[in-house]
Write a structure and sequence with these properties.
By secondary structure, the chain is α+β, with helices and mostly antiparallel strands. The protein contains 9 helices and 10 strands. It is globular and about 65 Å long. Strand 5 and strand 6 form a beta hairpin.
């Protein structure tokens, strides 16, 4: 498991930009990283605010007119309450501010006292590459461990991952997905920071309200609002592919019950991985 305290667009797998061969066994490439255990609001998914809002409006209407009655009424009510007339604008604006916060954090924390730049530490997880070909990892400043760039003590704030701090600042929600589950001490730290950010209304919660669509909620609603809807059941299957588990009790709440669990305490398992997860974790059905 990864120690959380230590430390653009998706591309298909194997479509990384090659730069040069540095050594016989060292190619230099550019690749996208999907920061694990967190989820920030989207900044472009679904189009601009006007286009995205039209999509969300269709979803809201379908949730109310019977198109998606296959979804539990409780979930439909949860989503309708969040699909406000400005839901897309607020979500996309939050996504842009989350990117700015991330960029500012990286620029600040990778700068050494002498003005030179540290490298970025990339700590890969157990499940290395996701379906879009992005490396799944935690990121943090890389300290050289030299006299000019000493490694801070383990509990020093500079050792924290950017994943953790985006959650602590309120610009990301937790998004822990099996099997990339942090070890217990790191998971507890992540959940504690998430709870504090939510309770104190930091970042996105302060700027855009507690009813802001979370990243995975927004993406699901965009899929449900597709203009050329042919099969509601297929749209639902495409939008909801992960089972949610309550981390407090390890109780499965299913594909459509996540809203009953506080955001910070949701563990996600791909439906295709559920049987394997049941052998690895003491899940309660």
């Amino acid at each position: 498991m990864v120690d959380l305290g230590f430390v653009g667009p998706s591309r298909p797998a194997n479509d990384y930009r090659f730069f040069e061969v540095i050594d016989g066994d060292t190619p230099k490439i550019e690749m996208s990283i999907r920061m694990v255990s967190i989820d920030t609001p989207e900044s472009e998914f679904g189009g601009g605010p006007v286009t995205a809002q039209a999509t969300l409006d269709r979803t809201r209407e379908r949730l109310r007119d019977g198109t998606y009655d296959a979804l539990p009424a409780e979930l439909r009510e949860h989503l309708v309450a969040r699909l406000t007339p400005d839901a897309a604008r607020r979500h996309l604006s939050a996504g842009k501010l989350a990117a700015e916060a991330h960029r500012s954090m990286v620029n600040t924390r990778l700068r050494r006292p002498d003005g030179s730049q540290r490298k970025l530490a990339v700590i890969a997880t157990g499940e290395l590459v996701e379906q879009n070909g992005r490396l799944l990892a935690y990121t943090a400043p890389w300290f050289a461990g030299t006299a000019s760039d000493p490694l801070p003590p383990r509990d020093h704030p500079d050792r924290r991952t950017f994943n953790l701090d985006l959650v602590a600042l309120g610009w990301a929600a937790t998004f822990v997905i099996y099997p990339s589950i942090p070890r217990p001490s790191d998971l507890n730290l992540l959940l504690s920071e998430a709870d504090d950010a939510w309770r104190e209304r930091r970042g996105a919660w302060a700027e855009f309200g507690a009813d802001l669509l979370l990243g995975y909620e927004y993406r699901a609603c965009v899929k449900l609002g597709v203009a050329d809807l042919e099969d509601p059941a297929a749209a639902i299957a495409g939008a909801y592919q992960r089972v949610c588990v309550d981390l407090r009790t390890l109780t499965e709440v299913g594909l459509f019950g996540y809203h009953r669990v506080p955001p910070a305490h949701r563990l996600w398992i791909w439906a295709t991985d559920l049987e394997r997860a049941r052998t690895d974790l003491p899940l309660v059905s």
